[in-house]
Amino acid sequence: MRSSTLKLIVLLATILTTLIVIVQLYWLKKVYSFEEKQFNNNVVRSIRGVFEDLQMNDNPSMIFQQLIASPGPNYYIFKADTLPLKDSLSFYLQREFADFNVTTDCKLAAYSKDLKKYIYAKYIPAAATNYPGQEVSDFPVFDDDFDHILLYFPHRSNYILGQMNFWIISSIILFITLIGLAVSLFYFYRQKFLSEIQKDFVNNFTHEFKTPLAVMKIASEVLAQSSIVHQPDKLQRYTEIIKNQTEHLQNQVGRLLKAASSDNTDLHIEKENINAHQLIEQALDKVQPLIEEKNAKVEIRVGGTSEQMFADKAHLELAVVNLLENALKYSSDPHIVVEAGKSEKDFFIKIKDNGIGIEKKYIKNIFKKFYRIPTGDVHNVKGFGLGLNFVKRIIDAHDGKIKVNSIPGIGTEFKLLIPVN
Ligand code: ADP
Fold first, then answer.
1. HEC states along 30-56?
2. pTM value?
3. Nearest CA to ligand 1 atom 25
């Protein structure tokens, strides 16, 4: 499976999961509203039953709905022409609650408009209540124009949630399953990503080693011919080829080993005074074969020939070699400018090329280990994606910074900054 297909699958799965979660939450809210309504109906029916049992209303033609109100989510008040006795009210209320399945605790109180206060109150625990018996505290007065009974359900929300047990448990199971799926997908994606990196690495490795080995094989076959001893020029040329390719292979192996062995450990830095011009010249020597191969133009601009820096010579040279190699690799007709100098706070080395450039969105990734910009068919430059990672580690070890300026199609500039102190 290609990584773009996998990305699409992951994206679709994420959208689908989000939709499922939204729909499930929507249904939970709907069920809650439904249960709330159901509870409300049951309470109203119980109150109607109490009205009929205790004949609390002098005017039977009065519409029942006008006698009852719910001033808050947990409160009901109902008008009573005659306030019943506390015990008979609580007895009938309990009976009606049982009939209409209102099985949560309730506090009741009777308000007298003449006395302007609640004249009695009682806590009615539900049959299977889990809550400890409670004191009847002061009630708010919602309406003081008429005698009325107030009902307060302190645990109404928990009771409604309790009625939704099935929905809540099934939603939790669904969410856990979705989280499990998301985690598996993440690991699968990561595994796939790692295996692609590995595949790329093996491909690049094969390419990097196959070509020099093939060249060496041909050269050694030429050298094996007996007639070669009579052609000293040819002998020297082919010996040179084998020497160059061996050096190239040695460099590659050395770099790979360095990158692998110094994994995650800090580089050991030994600072000394170094001559910037010399450092750049030595780095250029290392990439001379590539400069020749590409017929590259290289300009060196150093403040003064004796411009001094204080850094780890071997590592800094390696960083410059890596940047020069990239500048050459990623430019078709290279014109490279190398600058070095000292500002107030930093020593700097700039390497500017006129190559293919780097799109802005990739810049944050190029320093990651094994990262290579996906270029499709644009170019087929080979590499291991280790060079810039190593440069970053060298500069990090100096507490320095790397700045990248790049315009696709125009070129790239890497600026290494190493603090003076
Ligand atoms: P590689 O071995 O692929 O060159 P690097 O770590 O050196 O690995 O670079 C990472 C990626 O950054 C490269 O694959 C390349 O796409 C991009 N890159 C680095 N330097 C340049 C440059 N000077 N111009 C254009 N692209 C570059």
1. HHHHHHHHHHHHHHHHHHHHHHHHHCC
2. 0.56
3. 357
Nearest CA to ligand 1 atom 19: 326
Instruction: Kindly give the distance from the C-alpha atom of residue 244 to the centroid of ligand 1, in angstroms, as a whole number.
Output: 23
pLDDT, one tens digit per residue, over 136-157 is: 567 788 877 888 999 999 889 9
Q: How sure is the predictor about 259, in pLDDT bands with cuts at 50, 70 and 90?
A: low
Query: How many Å lie between the centroid of ligand 1 and the Cα of residue 215?
Result: 25
Give residues (CB < 6 A) around ligand 1. 326-327, 330, 353, 355-358, 366, 371-373, 383-389, 412
Please name which of 170, 38, 49 lies closest in space to residue 104, comparing C-alpha atoms: 38
Q: Nearest C-alpha to atom 4 of ligand 1 is from which residue?
A: 383
pLDDT digits (tens, 9 = 90+) for 164-212: 888 999 999 999 999 998 898 888 888 887 887 777 777 777 777 877 8
What are the structural domains, with CATH classification, of the chain? Answer: 3-163 (no CATH), 167-261 (1.10.287.130), 272-419 (3.30.565.10)
- In 3D space, the residue among 332, 254, 333 whose CA is nearest the CA of residue 297 turns out to be 333
